[in-house]
Specification:
single chain; 300 residues; alpha/beta; 6-stranded parallel β-sheet; 3-stranded parallel β-sheet; 41% helix; globular; binds nicotinamide-adenine-dinucleotide
């Protein structure tokens, strides 16, 4: 293995530490405490784990955490009413509605009812438009985390060839916009891309956000390229015992690591950065709301 392993866990701990320092200064100098409200509808087990861990880390960096757990049958009207209250609440600077929502709720309608200034997930149509036009916006957490790691690795990304595999609204598209804004030459590949291997071979930066276990092998990777593996896939692991599973990324780790210059592991790469960036976005939202300087190095 020749690639440098990009330690997302350590990087995320560093980001959270910087957020905590800034939060402490806001308290001391301005008597301000950033607040993050997380809304969970229903009892999806994975969502419950995410929400618990977001709440815990929010408190750990010194912010206020407000959790709103609603039952699965909650009506759209009641959910929109709660979001309206959170929009109007000055102690709430960030609002996150945990996705996916139960089927009877219109996700687009719900997300677009959040005040764009408090939309710390960056999914509101206004933030999507602001990002696409290069204006100040709230940036989706996972692509922001990837960007931070890439900037840390390379300094300037200007002129680099970047291939993003996946065109989802939450990862692929915003990732491509951010790389474009940092002056990369960006290709977005997806399920209909012809000869994906050839496309990926051109890339100095590969961001894989597909959701297919180990689909990118090492012989698709240009020697020395940086590989950011966003995928989180649970696969059977009979070697660990009957019924056991393990997490793998979208890249075949060992073979990509033979060729790449740097690579993020799964787990321990992009994953921890996502929550760290959620906290960074909440801090940014609080600073903007109060007309204060934004935290340096924690925004796009
Ligand atoms: P998605 O299902 O919304 O999008 C997947 C994309 O992959 C689509 O745009 C599709 O065109 C593309 N695709 C599908 N098959 C393909 C193929 N054979 N070749 C090329 N492209 C193909 O998924 P998503 O929400 O963007 O998530 C992608 C992965 O990232 C998932 O594994 C998800 O769990 C993970 N994820 C991780 C984090 C994190 O914090 N690390 C956050 C969000 C998503």
């Amino acid at each position: 293995m020749s690639a440098q392993v990009i330690d997302g866990k350590a990087f995320a701990a560093d980001v959270r530490g910087r957020v905590a320092e800034h939060v402490a200064r806001l308290k001391a100098d301005h008597d301000l405490t950033p607040g993050l409200a997380v809304v969970l509808v229903g009892e999806d087990p994975a969502s419950q784990v995410y929400v618990r861990s977001k709440g815990k880390m929010t408190v750990e960096v010194g912010m206020n955490s407000f959790e709103h757990k609603l039952d699965a049958g909650t009506s759209e009207k009641d959910l929109l009413e709660l979001i309206g209250q959170l929009n109007a609440d000055p102690s709430v600077h960030g609002i996150l509605v945990q996705l996916p929502l139960p089927r009877h709720l219109n996700e687009d309608l719900v997300i677009n009812s959040i005040d764009p200034a408090k939309d710390v997930d960056g999914f509101h149509i206004s933030n999507v438009g602001l990002l696409a036009t290069g204006q100040k916006s709230m940036v989706p957490c996972t692509p922001l985390g990837c960007l931070m790691m890439l900037r840390n690795q390379h300094g300037s990304l200007s002129g680099m060839d970047a291939v993003v595999i996946g065109r989802s609204n939450i990862v692929g598209k915003p990732m491509a916009q951010l790389l474009l804004r940092d002056s990369c030459t960006v290709t977005i590949a997806h399920s209909r891309t012809k000869d994906l291997a050839e496309v990926v071979r051109r890339a100095d930066i590969v961001v894989a956000a597909v959701g297919r276990p180990e689909m990118v092998p090492g012989d698709w990777i240009k020697p020395g390229a940086t590989v950011i593996d966003v995928g989180i896939n649970r696969v059977d692991a009979p070697e660990k015992g009957e019924g056991k599973t393990r997490l793998v990324g979208d890249c075949l780790y060992e073979s990509c690591a033979e060729v790449a210059g740097a690579i993020t592991p799964v787990p321990g790469g992009v994953g921890p950065m996502t929550i760290a960036c959620l906290l960074a976005n909440t801090l940014t939202a609080c600073c903007r709301e109060n007309g204060l300087a934004e935290p340096e190095g924690l925004t796009a």
